[in-house]
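Assemble and predict.
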Amino acid sequence: MISRFVEWAAHAEGSTRSIALIRIGLVFLLWSRWAFEVSPFFAPSLLRVVLAAVFAVSTTLMLIGLWTRVAVPATAAVIGAMYVHGTLSPYPSSWQAHHAYLLVAGVAYCALTPSERSYSVDRWLAIRRARRLGEPLPPERGNLLGLRLIALQLATIYFWGALDKTHPGYFNGARIEQVLMAKYTGSDYPSWPGFHQAAVLLGASTVLLEYSLAFGLFVSRARRLLLPLGAFFHGTLYFVTPVSTFSTTMILLYLAYLDPDDVHQMLDELQSAD
Amino acid sequence: MRDYRDLLEGSRRARTVVLGVLLFWMMLGPAVGQLIHPGTKWFRGWTMYTGVGRGLRDVRFLVGRNGKLESIDWPSLPEKKQIGGRRGPWRRSIFTDADFHWAVDRMCEQLGPGADLRAIVRVGFNEGWKPLLDGKRNLCEGASDDQ
């Protein structure tokens, strides 16, 4: 069983389109999260200028897929350093938050998989070179280690997140009431009919859903139900009680659960349809 | 020029080692951050929303009039202009004794001498709500230091 797992996780090969889409999506999330905060005007200093320049160049190259093999690890190094900076800070820092770690992990795992083989300037240049030399076009295939690590990271998040919520406060509705009150009504307990009952239902179903997502997303039959449910769960949180880019990053990284060859075929069908 | 990716793609052993190390880190982080040493910043626990709303007071103010207790609205807390300051619903969020006493003092002032102000208060914890005040005492009588 362990050897089958290692074969699946470390040695499987497949289409690189999924990881390329993740690479592109991650850049937009990185920009929406940090482009403003790393700007030199936010705290003018030489370090900020260097940080802003490296962030801007590495993420732009990562987006368009030029010198991708350097750009993706460089981006991982920059945001990893920002995460460590946030961790070292004596004050609470959002650079050290859950959503920041998820972005760092996503980019770092992306750097372990050849995402440049799809949807990149690197691929376009490789195709031109191959045509010029009369060679076959480079395949959009590669090792899937990074993609598998993303899926395993998400499962870890769901499992430990559910474990953290496995206490009476989530089953008697109190934690949901407290979160919603903190975001919307403050110290006034809402007089909406059924508020307490809805909080009990939401609390219990959140814990059950997170345990189900932790394991069920690896099972193809369960995935059909759990993927839309998970996306709906994160989408709702994003609009009701947002935590920066966390929900949107989770939804983007769901691509790691889909068979990359199925994604490839679907995109082929989509692009060839007139 | 060969780089780490060539090494990964060319060596099963290298990929297995990377997988093992990263899986260990993935599991070790929450195990330490949530079970062994909760609150440590160096090991990533997945405790989203754990702190949100914890410590919030659910407050219901009552005023005694003609021998009856009636619910009464309370003044929003002072606005703070600085980043992360008190705005929107936060101006109606009591997390500390100081904020509670500020609201009580304003209300006693507005209600005038001899006012009968009560409060039913409970505070949010992980396990649920815990009662803090039961509304039996007139908060405008004497010092409001009963929390």
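The two ends of chain A are 45 Å apart (CA to CA).
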